[in-house]
What does this fold into?
Amino acid sequence: MATRGPISRALEREDTLAFWLLAPTLLILTLFIAYPFVRGVWLSLSNSTVGEPGHFIGLANFYKIFSDSIFRTAAYNTFVYTAITTVFKLALGLWLALLLNRHFRGKSWVRAFILLPFIIPTVLSTLAWKWMFDPTFSVFNWLFWKLHIINSRINWLGDPELAMGSIMMVNVWRGVPFYAISLLAGLQTINPDLHEAAAIDGANRFQRFWYVTWPLLLPVTMVVVLFSVIQTFADFQLVYVLTGGGPANATHLFATYAYQIGIGTGLLSEGAAISLAMFPALLLVVVFQLWYIRKVENR
Amino acid sequence: MIEGARWRKWLWFYLPLGAFILALLFPFYWMVVTTVRPDGELYRPWNHPLYSPFWTSNPTFEHVKDLLQETLFNTWMLNTMFIALVATLISLFCGVIAGYALARLTFRWAGVLGTAIFVTYLVPQTLLFIPLAEIIRDYRIGDTPWALILTYPTFLIPFCTWLMMGYFKAIPRELEECARIDGAARWQAMVYIIFPIAVPGILSAGIFAFTLSWNEFIYALVFLSSPEQKTVPVGVTSELIRGDVFFWGSLMAGALIGSIPVAIVYSFFVEHYVAGMTGSVKG
Amino acid sequence: MAQVKLTNLNKKFDGTHAVKDVNLEIRDREFVVLVGPSGCGKTTTLRMVAGLEEISSGDISIDGKVVNNLAPMDRDIAMVFQNYALYPHMTVYDNMAFGLRMRKFERPEIDRRVTHAADVLGIQPLLERRPRQLSGGQRQRVALGRAIVRNPRVFLFDEPLSNLDAALRVQMRVELKRLHERLETTAIYVTHDQVEAMTLGDRVVVMKDGTVQQVGGPLELYDRPANRFVAGFIGSPAMNFIGATLAEANGSLWAEAQGLRVRVPPQKAERLRRHAGQRVVMGLRPETLRPATAADSDYAFDATIDVVEPLGSEILLDVRVGDSPVVARVDPGLRFSARERVRLAFDPARVHFFDATSEAAI
It folds into this structure.
């Protein structure tokens, strides 16, 4: 019989082995997720500033931020930003996925290049957009001017009415490839026989999509949407680079405003409170997602 | 009817696909053109008669030279590379073994831990960056690469774990059962049989983790302060903009060159990357 | 070489009792087959012997030593899986050497053993290939080779032939038998295929719902099934069952059912007399039925032919006796047609009776 060391033998027990395999992960997640979360809750209930520990002041920070009109604008912006961009990303992403799901020459190249907006570091590609939106040198202005659509400049990021729309455009640009490629992967798992069967049953192109493709694609779509909603809701980089929350604080999101208050002005507690204000909405999405995954798995 | 079909295919297929490609790739083209455009051309207003957006008659590498010689860009590249590599290795190690445990072993808290790790996967960095900044300061690792190397795994490990769980579940159980009967201890079956088979999955997770680390912004922005410690995304956005003055030539050069490592890794492993991305979505 | 003993073996998964009080003693060098329908607990029993499944209660001992808490690696057994479980990233050679390497054998010894096993199985030319480059039969051989290189005390087989096509299965069955005769290693073999069980097993263990129904040699199971389940499971086409009532008349015992009245053969009547007036189940194997002659009067019944299945070597007659469907396997020289009335006789020495409620043989 083979001889083994006591460690091998101890690790034959499933729970012992599982414990040691999970220990590094749990250690890191406890130190840098769970503990910060607790710390964040405490911060938001105290009046700490940079270098000042502070003491417990209850919900005062939350009362304060909820009566702050910039915070309310930021909250409103975040919801609108998430809702509108998600609709566009889903619609355009699905369209692109359907286009890519057909056979054509150079398909793998197209697919590879199309993902670039998603993989290139966001702030770096956003800088290119900022340059394209520059009030004086904007290529869009030149284009629209040449096409005789405008006579005077469009101030893409400087006009409070327009700035949010410009930011959304960049978000959609960055998000569409992710939606398209994920949905494409979902589309490819659908057996083409089903389409042929539906076609033989007399369904037209639209009916085939609506009654065959869409229901089968729905689980993947839901996961993609929920995942992207969380990312969008907590977005920071686009606004930080494009407008920094301006003009006149018109384009803040939760995250950028939290950064401005917590890090920019050093009011840590208020900043933490603004960050945590995202939590209920995020929790709702996560719980829904867990419920949905379980439902799909049990089907 | 055949003629009509061709016309229709152009309208419904090539035209929209072309528009998508144009819209998605134009900003990168714009980066390239700006990088090689001399300053004199660069700062012509949009309604200037000589505004020539899509090409430049006398390309220059002045901006690239400025970027590499006058700024800390090289240092940022090295910093980012180091941080991304170490964070990726740590996360792969943790994620692979944790994924194995959750996919293959039965133990009391398996379900709860699996859900907990999935939930942390969904926690955005912007939720906790303020308390984390405090903690980083307490641990005295602020303004060092370790601030990022230790915090990046918080979003990389859950991702790697989740992806690897899917991979491990697809490997037949009999393989390791057979190995154990063949005389391997559980851990040996894991290391000698399961891990080698999961190499494509580990590659996908690694590539994805590397690009995520390279792209990360807010932690790097908050936890690092000295210019020589910064990563590419933070360095380019903060150090190349002085006050209100944007040096667009070197900014675009920085954005372009700063993207190259990710683009290279991506181009070598497109299939793995796509597998990682779609795998993470399918869960 | 080893004996394996299972004592009051039980396995409970949450909610289900998969293996119930199994007692079994497997002798040295014996080839024992566990057979039964899916979900009967045969595979779970095998996996407990392998150490892959924890034992809920009871003991497993190998050579008199209880191995309940021994890890699979320490049990010195080998197992062949249904899907072969070949390591896809290793060559055939490395697949076979893996177990020896884990046990820290010297290189030359590994080489010698792998080469020898490859010789025995005729797979030397495949040693450098990867599993995915092999056909089903070749994979099967590699899986066997991996098991035999180690000279384990016990071989375990988990439905090893069920992924092969029919022709190959028959061929591999013969090879397995030859291999066992050559190696003489104790073997436990799980299958749902009664033909495999009958051809391979020195003894066959029939299981159902987690309990052992009967243990015995193949012919013993065929000739003297302990209960209605074993009777129906062993043999193809399956035994016919006809519900009947026992009645005394003219000094002998008769089995009566709708459309049928046959005499209970005297050698059985002794034991069956206690059941007079009760419901029983009469079992007739299709191969014991034949067209009746005048001499068969007490051991024959009338039937209507539903379907005639001429198979060449034999004819299967699907007939109806009263309400009961009955299959008869008759001489291919005879001619029958559907809806024809036919009188069938049976061999009185080979009729079986089972208790209608307990289903035990009587």
Chain A touches chain B through 104 residues (CB under 8 Å). The mean pLDDT of chain A is 88. Residues 69-297 of chain A form a domain with the MetI-like fold fold (CATH 1.10.3720.10). Residues 69-100 of chain A form the longest helix (32 residues).
